[in-house]
């Protein structure tokens, strides 16, 4: 598969899968404003996923639009990172997953504004203000819950530790990444990792949370289509309608 | 042959009457969504619009409302193009649009969009301080944010500590 196509699917699938995860909490948020925030972030990510997947479909040139790519691919054809498919867990897990993702997403999108691919650059430009808002919110919540009560602190520390092993994959360059970096389409992973670690360290210090070791053992495989069992269940729910009633429309 | 001859200024004036589907008191032109109008051969018009938020569900409604407004006035060929760059900003909202929002009970964006020196500076916690927003009901600036997110992606929830009324705030974006 063309490297740029695969790179676009990674961008689109990350946004799509996390959007779906957040949408699971619609109407179930722990407080009204949290419920609205989660669904607003889900909506932004869905819009971004649509832009990436539309471009991916055009580049592929086989007549697949964003809907076909979202609803008619199976788990092994999804290229999202393992982090975004992790279950919502308790609210500490939900927010920690969001904070880890938002930090990476923010610095990535900020760099993609300079991409040598004009279409990628303009989608990034459109998304940047949204992902800035997402990161301000999740970082703020990590501080408020981490530096909150003894109970909220303990929940946040557990979530930080348990999700840590899914963060390494975001910065592991494979052949697709290498080609995109060489072409000036994507930023180098090492620089992103430095920015990511610095921001996580800042927020964790303020949140009185202990940052896990950066060189800890990390999970990998999502970007290449090797997923945890969770993705299949997520897709089963997300894709049911189009699988059962192909071509169904509003 | 009844070729309709329209000019761009006329099309702009028609579009100025197309309401935003979620905040009908202001038009798509007031909001700064319409980025360009081009008339080709007198009876074909291309309207370029830009999305507010990536996932804004109102965009498809806006596109069909623009199409409808032009068809209704006899323009046969309407093309609605989407442009992502430069990205939409509330700085493009017209002054009359802001006044209409206030009259409707929604506080308009309180400042121009802040540019930060670096990516890291823009997400530092001190950067996320909410701006001072005047209550659209009594004008007091003694207000506080109750939620960063409101009924639509573009709004936050505030309350006035002077007149005690809650209100929507159209966020700077």
UniProtKB/TrEMBL annotation, chain A:
Annotated InterPro entries: Aromatic_CoA_ox/epox, Ferritin-like, Ferritin-like_SF, PaaA_PaaC, PaaC
Gene source species: Pseudoduganella flava
An annotated GO cellular component: cytosol
Top-level taxon of the source organism: Bacteria
Stated name of the protein: Phenylacetate-CoA oxygenase subunit PaaC
A GO biological process held by the record: phenylacetate catabolic process
Gene3D superfamilies, per database record: 1.20.1260.10
From TrEMBL, chain B:
Sequence ranges assigned to domain PaaD zinc beta ribbon in this UniProt record: 127-171
Gene3D superfamilies, A to Z: Fe-S cluster assembly (FSCA)
InterPro entries assigned to the protein according to its UniProt record, in alphabetical order: Fe-S_Maturation_MIP18, FSCA_dom_sf, MIP18-like, PaaD-like, Zn_ribbon_PaaD
The MIP18 family-like domain, residue ranges: 8-71
PANTHER family named in the record: 1,2-PHENYLACETYL-COA EPOXIDASE, SUBUNIT D-RELATED, FE-S PROTEIN MATURATION AUXILIARY FACTOR YITW
Protein name (record): Phenylacetate-CoA oxygenase subunit PaaJ
Species of origin: Pseudoduganella flava
Gene name for this UniProt entry: paaJ
């Amino acid at each position: 598969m063309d490297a740029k196509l695969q790179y676009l699917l990674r961008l689109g699938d990350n946004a799509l899968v996390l959007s779906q995860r957040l949408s699971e909490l619609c109407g179930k948020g722990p407080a009204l404003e949290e419920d609205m925030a989660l669904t607003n972030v889900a909506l932004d990510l869905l819009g971004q996923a649509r832009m990436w997947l539309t471009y991916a479909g055009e580049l592929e040139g086989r007549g697949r639009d964003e809907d076909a790519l979202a609803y008619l691919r199976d788990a092994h054809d999804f290229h999202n990172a393992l982090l975004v498919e992790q279950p919502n867990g308790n609210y500490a897990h939900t927010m920690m997953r969001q904070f880890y993702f938002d930090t990476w997403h923010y610095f990535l999108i900020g760099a993609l504004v300079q991409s040598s691919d004009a279409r990628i650059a303009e989608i990034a430009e459109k998304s940047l203000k949204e992902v800035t808002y997402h990161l301000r919110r999740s970082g703020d919540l990590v501080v408020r819950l981490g530096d909150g009560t003894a109970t909220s602190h303990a929940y946040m520390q557990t979530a930080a530790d348990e999700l840590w092993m899914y963060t390494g994959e975001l910065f592991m360059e494979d052949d697709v990444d290498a080609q995109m970096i060489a072409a000036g389409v994507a930023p180098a992973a090492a620089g992103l990792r430095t920015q990511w670690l610095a921001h996580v360290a800042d927020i964790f210090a303020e949140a009185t949370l202990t940052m896990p070791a950066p060189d800890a053992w990390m999970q990998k495989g999502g970007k290449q289509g090797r997923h945890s069992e969770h993705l299949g269940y997520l897709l089963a729910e997300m894709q049911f309608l189009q699988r059962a009633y192909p071509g169904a429309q509003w | 042959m009844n070729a309709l001859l329209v000019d761009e200024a006329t099309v702009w004036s028609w579009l100025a009457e197309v309401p935003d589907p979620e905040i009908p008191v202001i038009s798509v032109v007031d909001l700064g969504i319409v980025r360009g109008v081009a008339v080709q051969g007198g009876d074909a018009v291309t309207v370029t619009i830009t999305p507010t938020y990536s996932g804004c569900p109102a965009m498809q409604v806006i596109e069909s409302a623009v199409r409808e407004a032009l068809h209704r006035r006899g323009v046969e060929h309407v093309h609605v193009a989407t442009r992502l760059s430069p990205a939409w900003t509330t700085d493009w909202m017209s002054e009359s649009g802001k006044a209409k929002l206030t009259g409707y009970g929604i506080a308009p964006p309180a400042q121009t969009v802040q540019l930060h020196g670096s990516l890291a500076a823009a997400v530092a916690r001190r950067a996320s301080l909410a701006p001072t927003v005047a209550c659209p009901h009594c004008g007091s600036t003694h207000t506080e944010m109750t939620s960063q997110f409101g009924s639509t992606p573009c709004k936050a929830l505030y309350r006035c500590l002077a007149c005690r009324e809650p209100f929507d705030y159209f966020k700077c974006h």
